[in-house]
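Fig. S4 source data, part A: sequence.
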Amino acid sequence: MRHFDLIIIGTGSGNSIIDERFADWDVALVEKGIGPNDAYGGTCLNVGCIPTKMFVHTADVAGSPASGAKLGVDLELRDVRWRDIRDRIFGRIDAISAGGRRYRAEDNPNVTLYEGVARFTGVKQLRVETAAGPEEINADRVVVAAGGRPSIPDIPGLDQVDYYTSDTVMRLDRLPSRMIIMGTGFVGAEFAHVFSSLGVEVTMIARSGRVLRGEDVDISKRFTELAAGRWDLRLNRKEIAVERDGELVRLHLEGPEGAEVVSAEALLIAVGRVPNTDLLDAAAGGFELTADGKIKADATQLTSVDGVWALGDISSDYELKHVANHEMRVVQHNLLHPEEPIESDHRFVPHAVFSSPQIASVGLTEQEAERRGVNYVTSTQDYAGIAYGWAMEDTTGFAKLLADPDTGQLLGAHIIGPQAPTLLQPLIQAMHFGLDARTMACGQYWIHPGMPELVENALLNLPLK
């Protein structure tokens, strides 16, 4: 059994731990592969944030002609060259992934790259199933950054049909004319925007009565209204069975009005993700797990096993790349400076949904504030109420803020509309550094007429004491 100073499992954010400060460490890096091509670099690079946003931007461009008529500009979309779109995106992504692998495998003499599924066989001890056969390794320190994978629901017949997940759907050989998307979270909402903008008829299946139900209720309601006008949205449905009918997939549903069937050439499963703890046999490694099967880690990212840290989707409540990167920097510091550990800061974690319209959020939703008994006031500002909103003829977007009525400290911020993630950023900064709403609104200039006036007016609308 080969012994290392450090084993890192996963080449997403975990890969970034190793810099020049670890040059005299003997490091093992283990990667099981992501998606159909067993790519190096983790979920974000290969099947997550980066390629999806490249598709989203393409979809935004493809959808822009439809918005021209209300501005007096008549445009039309002539063609969508799917393979050109796909190959442009993965021509870049795959090259980055291959380059990252080559760098670690060939240019880092202190790093040994193991490619294969790893399982714990004991505390800080692993068996890796490589192409050359199994290898046993152990280490003084271990970092578990092995991520997660799409969740597959237990529906009769699903194992008998071809279906796609976020890992595979972006590499379709051709666009289907119709697609069923099962799931109404951020993955489903983003892919519904992508494929419908490129000409695919989308049917979206929801078990609940709203799309993006984890968002603030006003944001979720507005998005659901707009989604129903754009896609064939089936709310409050239960999936009963799936079957193949020639070139079609038939999904049997039970809805408010009884049984129904929807058919399409492609079925996308987007009902959530599960951590890869089972693949690692985390129990054999001695780890304490959370109720949802993740590795439990404290604020320093240390697990229940001394000398083992965890980060990212396999342990975090926030399945977001920017959170995994933050936790990576904490683990990196604590590996190098065990006598002076630092803690992760998860107080103000933002997220965004890159659908159409875009959504961005940070802090408490109104329903969370009510559930926790937090004293708050709220305000909203429509895009239609600012000059740049007039320019865009936006009639559906708005910003919603929650604040402490006594101190003016922001408790939550939620935006639905164009460039929502960009507009949210100064509000994240204000919450993180304790800038109250009145000082933020009145203590600086706001460019007129710019979109940030949406934020300015929302701040000014707060009924503070």
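Fig. S4 source data, part B ends here. The chain has a mean pLDDT of 97.
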